[in-house]
Amino acid sequence: VLTVADAGRVEEGAVATFAIRLDKAVDNATTLRFSLGGDIAADDVGTPTVTINGAAVAVTDLGDGRYSVSVPAGTTDGIRVSVP
């Protein structure tokens, strides 16, 4: 089970940060795919950044508001997606 915490109320121009938690640690490096959607215009958001346990990880832009990151084996929490 993957849980994404609500970023709460985010004022225009502020960064929205979402905490992600996995119910069970991944056995091997795993690709996590996510998308930005909802009632937003493309120019309302910037490129998301991701940290795992405080370390920045590479984010791959898949196009159309979709992205992916590699999550190392053993990870359950400490994943943060920040969207400017």
From TrEMBL:
Organism: Zobellella endophytica
Protein name: Bacterial Ig-like domain-containing protein
